[in-house]
Amino acid sequence: MSKLSRRDFLKLTGALSGAAMLSQVAPRLRAQSDKPNVIILVFDAMTARDLSLYGFKRETTPNLGRFAARANVYHAHRSAGNYTSPGTASLLTGTYPWTHRAFDIAGLIERDRVKHNIFTAFGSDYHRLAFSQNLLPNYFFGQFENDLETIVPASSFSVIEQVAGEAFKRDLATGYRTFDNFLFQDGQAPASLVFGLADRLLLRSREARNPDADYPRGLPRAGDHPIFFRLDDVFDGVQATLNELNSTSPYLAYLHLWAPHAPYKATKEFEEKFKDNFRSVKKPNHRLGDQLEYYKLNNRRTNYDEFIANVDAEFGRIISALEKDGVLDNSYIVVTSDHGESFERGVEGHVTSLLYEPLVHIPLIISSPGQTARQDIFTPTNAVDVLPTLLHATGQPNVDWTEGTLLPILGGKDDPQRSTYSVEAKNNAAYAALTKATIAMIKSNYKMIYYTGYEPEDSFEVYDLESDYEELNDLYPSQPSFAKQMKDELLEKLDSVNAPYRKSA
Amino acid sequence: MDISSRFPRQKDIAAVYAVIVLMIYGWTILKFNYNLPGWLYFLNLGEIAGVFAYSAVSNLLESLLVLLCIVAAAVLLPKKWFADSFVARGAALSILVLALMMYIASQFTTKQYYPSEIIRWSPAILIVIAVIVYFLGRVNFTRKVLEFFADRAIIFLYITIPISVISLVIVLFRLVL
After folding, report:
1. pLDDT in tens, A117-169
2. How many angstroms separate the Cα of A482 from the Cα of each of A460, A464, B94?
3. Interface of B with A (CB under 8 A)
4. Range 425-484 of A in CB contact (< 8 A) with B
5. Which of A168, A337, B157, B162 is in Cβ range 3.0-4.6 Å of A362 for a Cys bridge?
6. Could you say which of A102, A171, A204 has the minimum Cβ distance to residue B114?
7. How many helices and strands, by DSSP H and E, does chain B display?
8. Is the Cα dihedral A58, A336, A427, A182 positive or negative?
9. Taking Cα atoms as reference points, which of A438, A320, A337 lies closest to residue A386?
10. Alpha helix stretches (DSSP H) within A222-293
11. Percent of chain B, pLDDT > 90?
12. Which domains does chain A have, with CATH numbers?
């Protein structure tokens, strides 16, 4: 009898678990429909600023470029927040963080708005599946569970996993929050003295027993959560899931992958891919930043870029398979991110109060069914636009609660007067008016950043993104009348979104 | 050997259990209070109560597990080593071992840092603790202090046991219905 390798075993179990999950809805299998499928592929913490597709000097994304050759490429797309909870919630609800209110770490969408999400909007005509390696979107899946046919567990397709919350399938969100984000929380002393400590020791032991020669820096890990994975396993799992979904067409699949989020652990094939002389533009540290040293940020950025290249190679594999299977001919495929990543101004990562472009400028590439040519769109767009656009493109009924508009090419028009926003408010109570927050407003090629509630006083910055790509020349002091126009508009907007919370206060 | 005769009295078990409960529930409640202001930012009271219920049930199981180990030690070890001063030695053992666990747990301050040194030394520390526990039970003064403390701690059982039982019902209700 031939032996199964570990990878074969993982592929088999991944495919079988996918099949088992889908078999639960077998009685509801839909007849093949004319409606196109929708696949939303989210790469966590992927800034557009480090993708060669968007002009980055390092060749990080040749395969994304190959995919873009038959897709619509949005060059000025922004996330609505600078980390997972607000960014993902905006993508899934088509509303800004000041509306959905999921702007705290592991925050939730406001209860009255839970029904305002992409899965509900697509309705039961579609088989709706959600998978996220990051636990934070899983809190939202728990809120949406009545509108999801399949929730693929976060730890699927991983090499090592010790996610305790998944044992509580009927109370998933509380399970995750209690066990994985509290009692067994990594990165701090576990709140459970006996089980938490045992969990920590066991995880360490399993990690030590599972070195992987392909990953010299260690296996990629889903942040604070005990999920260690190989990129190829995850992409194989995603592909197997999509293959299974083909029998339930039409389907809406939301697939949120951890990579290229930190820790940036590429395979040995990619770990030294960028031994070059590239240096980021040196920028002064921001007063609200972490004050990290420039050379350290540069080194970390190289690791990040290598990880992106690694992710891109796996993405190329999956896109080739989807192309071969004809999935691209009957599906909208959306490739995007929930937020960006910073390696400048003393800040590494994205848990910060800043909203500069590396943190909010994210990729958006949408391939329509059977599309053969590339189209480039330079109008500013936002994550909140994706939901209404997909509804429109697939012929689903429009909804009146989204704050987004239709994306150009896919039903929308260029509107240079439109303002879009990104909001950072993790230090502000979700139930209160925004008084400690950072808000970025993009209008045409101008961007205003407003810091409110931070010492010593509220402040504004204005940049012309067309002539000042690196946001180094603050126009706020030098162009007071133009700055005042933008300031008035932003403050008026903030006042209107804060109004309901001021009344209740 | 008549095992049942080696079991400590229920009253003594309750006293030792009270010390365990004080340590285990106390640790979690401290952490809970630390997290509470953050949760109040975005969770409603029902959701926070859910987290509390799961935590209380988890604490109940943890405390019973530790108690089981201590009672097993009393049953299996020679009487003079442990069972003769069950309350004092059981309380001392609970305090010292759980304090060691608290120290180790508090070392996990980042994802990267692993306190290998203290974990490597743990078996030796446990042997030292066993010796200390033995002598604490033999010295009249320390034995009485420990017995007094354990006896006073029983009051906490009147709070934690009902809370844990209610929490257990809530958890079962959430998981079944």
Report:
1. 999 999 999 999 999 999 999 999 989 989 999 999 999 999 999 999 888 88
2. 13, 11, 69
3. 23-24, 27-28, 31-32, 35, 38, 40-44, 47, 50-51, 54-55, 58-59, 61-62, 65-66, 98, 101-102, 104-111, 114, 119, 174-176
4. 428-431
5. A337
6. A204
7. 6, 0
8. negative
9. A337
10. 231-245
11. 76
12. 6-159+229-416 (3.40.720.10)
d(CA A82, CA A421) in angstroms, rounded, equals: 11
Q: What's the pTM?
A: 0.90
Whole-angstrom distance, CA of residue A426 vs CA of residue A87: 12
Q: What is the DSSP string of A320-358?
A: HHHHHTTGGGSEEEEEE-S---EEETTEEES-SS---HH
Nearest CA in chain B to A195: B62
ipTM of the complex: 0.94
What DSSP line would sit under A164-221, residue for residue? SGGG-GGGHHHHIIIIIIIIT-TTS--SSTHHHHHHHHHHHHHHHT---TT-TT---B
pLDDT at residue A503 in the model? 62
- Strand, coil or helix: what is A366? strand
Average pLDDT value for chain B = 93
Preceding peptide of A216 cis, ω within 30°: no
- Mind listing the pLDDT tens digit for each residue in A56-107? 999 999 999 999 999 999 999 999 999 999 999 999 999 999 999 999 888 8
Residue A186 has a pLDDT of: 79
Amino acid found at A135: L
